[in-house]
Design a protein that fits this description.
alpha/beta; TIM Barrel; two-stranded parallel ribbon; 10 helices; 10% strand; DUF6282; Metal_Hydrolase
């Protein structure tokens, strides 16, 4: 549900084609491609033509260089088959604040800096209300019953976005890498988001050497606290210095099982919940 491959402005471990060969060798049903640079729905369409037996999907990340908070761009993306609309990631104000006093390490290293709004994008105004264009985007997502993902928004933005999304009829809300330091969400808030019907990404990147935000033991504890019905397992891998994403997913699953997560819970988080999000049930 969350993997990066090339083409990309950032160095990636694998091309789309190499990633899909790993998906096939692992006998997985499919994969969702994500790109901070913008859209992956068109790449996914071409990949499905080559591999019609696999579920290969993409979407659109609403960063500044892909149109930002533009209902027009989102409308076209949905018509072109986008399965997920991600709120801003590296253009988000929260992302830029996080890295103001931190090095990006081996992440987000492009040859030339990507263009960003000076202060970053927020989805709420100074009064704490969503911008009108965000409401338009939510209505488009609700109409086609696709996934709204929270990107790298700050927790206060996530609170407002989820509340208003539910009001306009969005059924599928995916909280991105809730344990990752870029936009970390406290466990109490994660529990509240579960009560509101959201699905939370439990992300291997948060446990790895790039961040070290949470141990595998505490990750397993958080899954038990939230319930596997409300979680999906993702790697967020694809960076050139990390293991290939499918290999990493296997390692993530094994380490969670070593920490008491059952095979049934893994199946729910890796297979069944993603199928429901993608309307494949």
């Amino acid at each position: 549900m969350h993997v990066h491959s090339s083409p990309s402005i950032f160095p990636r471990r694998q091309s789309d084609w190499q990633l899909i060969e790993d998906v096939r060798r692992a006998k997985m049903a499919g994969v969702v491609l994500k790109a901070h640079e913008g859209q992956t729905y068109d790449r996914a369409t071409l990949l499905r033509e080559k591999h019609p037996d696999l579920h290969i999907y993409g979407g659109l990340v609403l960063n500044a260089f892909s149109g930002g908070l533009s209902p027009v761009v989102v409308d076209v993306a949905i018509q072109m088959g986008a399965k997920i609309i991600w709120m801003p990631t590296i253009s988000a104000e929260q992302h830029q604040k996080y890295y103001t006093h931190r090095s990006t390490g081996k992440l987000f290293k492009s040859e030339k800096p990507l263009p960003h709004p000076f202060d970053g994008i927020r989805v709420v105004n100074d009064e704490g209300r969503l911008w009108p264009e965000v409401y338009e985007i939510l209505h488009l997502i609700a109409e086609k019953d696709i996934v709204l993902a929270t990107g790298h928004l700050a927790p206060d933005e996530v609170t407002v976005l989820v509340r208003e999304a539910k009001e306009v009829g969005v059924q599928k809300i995916l909280i991105q890498h809730a344990d990752l330091g870029i936009a970390k969400i406290p466990l109490d808030m994660q529990k509240e988001l579960v009560r509101q019907g959201c699905i939370l990404e439990k992300c291997y990147l948060a446990c790895g050497p790039d961040f070290h935000d949470i141990s595998l033991r505490f990750m397993a504890d958080s899954i038990r606290a939230l319930g596997a019905d409300s979680c999906v397992l993702v790697t967020d891998y694809g960076q050139v210095h990390n293991p290939p994403p499918i290999q990493a997913l296997g390692a993530f699953i094994q380490q969670l099982m070593d920490n008491g997560i059952s095979e049934r819970e893994v199946e729910k988080m890796v297979s069944l919940n993603p199928r429901e999000l993608l309307n494949l049930s």
